[in-house]
Amino acid sequence: MARLLRACALSIGVAAGVAAPRPAQADAQADEYRVKAAFLYKFGSYVEWPTGSFARADSPVTIGVMGADALADELAQIVAGRNVNGRPVLVRKLRPGDPIAGLHVLFIGRSDGRRLAEILAAARGQALLTVTESEEGLELGSMINFVVVEDKVRFDIAPPPSESSNLKISARLLGVARKVVSKSS
Amino acid sequence: MKLPSPRSLRQKLLGMMLVTTLVALIVALAAIIGYDLNAYHRILVSDMTTQAELLGRTIAPALAFDDARVAKENLSLLRFRPLVNSAAIYNARGALFATYVRKDDPHAFPKLPEPDSARVEQGDLVLFKRIVSDGEILGTVYLRADYELFDRVYDYLGIAGVVLIAAMLVALLMSSWMQNIVTRPILAIAQVAREVVGQRDYSRRAVKMSADEVGTLVDSFNDMLTEIDRRTGELEASNAKLAREAEERGRAEREILRLNTELEERVRERTAQLEAANRELESFSYSVSHDLRAPLRAIDGFGQALLEDFPEHLPGDAKRYLSRIRASTQHMAQLIEDLLNLARVSRGPLERRTVDLGQVARQVVGELQQREPGRAVEVSVWDGMPIEADPHLLRVALENLIGNAWKFTTKSAKPRIEIGALKDRGRSTFFVRDNGAGFDMAYADKLFGAFQRLHSTAEYAGTGIGLATVQRIVHRHGGRIWAEGEVGKGAVFFFTLATAAEEPSGAGPVREKAHG
């Protein structure tokens, strides 16, 4: 029993990035990425994509990570052997400007506002969960935006309008968001 | 075996029905309560498991995104479940993540979560439920809820008690009403039976109220009564007959008794008459005998005078005739003398005295030897034979007995006479034995009758009155006399005398021979 618990704790601990010690400054950054990677993976469980988004019943959920390779690496580690809604998870590293077609989740790392706005505009209307970590992320059209409050990673959500996107974000996810923003667009 | 307490059938039946009802009720209530408590437990566990599952699903996002605040908010919704006293969420690492406590729950939270389980602990239901999502354990829900099974047990016991009392009351009413159906006919029979026994009135009959076994019982009972009635009647008739017979027998006995009394009275009268006649006869014969002696003496005397005074004038034949006349008159005188003796023996008072029988016997023997000195008879008389008797009568008796012996031994070669006594149990039996002519035992009973002779006068002289006289003397003394003998060998005469004390009539004469 205890051993099993410890095994579970270890696996999640690794996923949440509590395990391996690192130098102080780099540690804080790495921890944050690790938590964000875990969250990114878990968001998939609370989101419903339209049926046409997947080719087959066991087609993978593809997560694109743009401008955050460290996070992508963490995420790749986390999702190895894991499923989201019964589907395997695929992680793709993207450069700014890479095509975003075929993605289900898109994480955009910190970048300047103009670039962010472009990318988000391109994503608009597609069944694509967009996640950012910039202060103006939601204003620019992102659906989920990470924030750090009291050294803890939290997130805000702006549920996508039904006409522009066929994504459904679970109310349970909304329940744990720091705040839920209703966009006017 | 001890008999059960004397209760009526009604009470027994009532008790039986109540006990049956009670047992049935208890079993039914126990089954219902058992089932309900079991159901309560199952439903509570299932309810709480569902609650935990729901809670887990609600809290899963908070766990996933490490939001303890949301988790706490979610948990606080449990305030709408008053049953839940406390709850906690453990994260995947087994650390306490969020808690909920209804006010004043003193129980501490477990340090580590446990796998899925539900158990009762200190009156609470303790439940662990894992939160699993996509095959991953996100954490564990811990719930501690009121387990009200024991309260329910107490409630149920109360309810059961009330139900039991109510049901028993209803059962009491119902059974006391219904048992009438069964007991009334039986009690009616019992009543009739009591009356029959109490009043001995076998003409009563029980009323048949039903056609069941009790009805059969009533029929049998009535048949039995009929039979008893009949038998009683017969018995009474037979008793009456017996009583009548007994009465008749009694009457007959009384009649017989009366007749007997009459008869005795008549016998007494006749006896008195006979005694009077007898006395007259004796008196007459005594007078006659007495009066006959004077003429006889005259005949004998004058015959003797003739012979002595005129011996030369009388021819030989005349002398011979005269001698015959004299012999006959002497014989007749002797006869008369004996008759008078016999009569005298019966008359007059008895004067008992202690006499030596041997001495009297020797005197008698002496007289006999004097009379016939030519005879040589060996006489032995035993010494010391005291006897209580009238000396005169004893002498008469011995004269006769010894005289007989003397007489009947005349033809014996060596005549011998023995006079002695045999002692038997303090009583003396005297005997006179001789070896003379003896007698035939076939005539032993005739020996003592008057004028009964076993030998002719020609053979042995005698009047035939001697032994009758002896017997009368012995009888007067309350004694007995008997004889043994054999022809040609001799005879023995035995006699006993009662002492004065033994003789009921004392020294007086024998009653039937008494002269007033």
Average pLDDT, all residues of chain A: 79
The low-confidence parts of chain A are 1-22
Compute the separation of the termini of chain B in Å.
83 Å
- The low-confidence runs of chain B, each spanning 5 or more residues with pLDDT under 50, are 505-516
Indicate the proportion of strand residues of chain B: 15-25%
CATH homologous superfamily label of the largest domain in chain B: Histidine kinase-like ATPase, C-terminal domain
Q: Assign a percent range to the helix content of chain A.
A: 25-40%
Count of individual domains of chain B: 3
Ends apart, CA distance between termini of chain A: 52 Å
The largest sheet of chain B has its strands arranged as 2-1-5-4-3
> Which two chains touch over the largest interface?
A-B, 27 and 23 residues
Largest sheet of chain A: 8 strands, mixed
Question: What string, H for helix and E for strand, traces the elements of chain A in order?
Answer: HHEEHEEEHEEEEHE
Structure description:
Chain A is α/β, with parallel strands linked by helices. Chain A has one domain: 3-Layer(aba) Sandwich (Rossmann fold). In chain A, strands 3-4-2-5-6-7-8-10 form an eight-stranded mixed β-sheet, sandwiched between helices. A two-stranded antiparallel sheet of chain A has the order 1-9. The radius of gyration of chain A is 16 Å and the shape is globular. With 516 residues, chain B is of the alpha+beta class. Chain B has three domains: 163 residues, Beta-Lactamase (2-Layer Sandwich), CATH 3.30.450.20; 145 residues; 166 residues, Histidine kinase-like ATPase, C-terminal domain (Heat Shock Protein 90, 2-Layer Sandwich). Chain B is built from eight helices and twelve strands. In chain B, a hairpin with a 2-residue loop joins β9 and β10. In chain B, α3 runs parallel beside α4, α6 packs across α7 and α7 runs antiparallel to α8. The longest helix of chain B is centred in the middle third of the chain and has 97 residues. Chain B is rod-shaped and about 215 Å long. The relative contact order of chain B is 0.05. Chains A and B meet through α1, α2, β3, β8 and α5 of A and α1 of B.
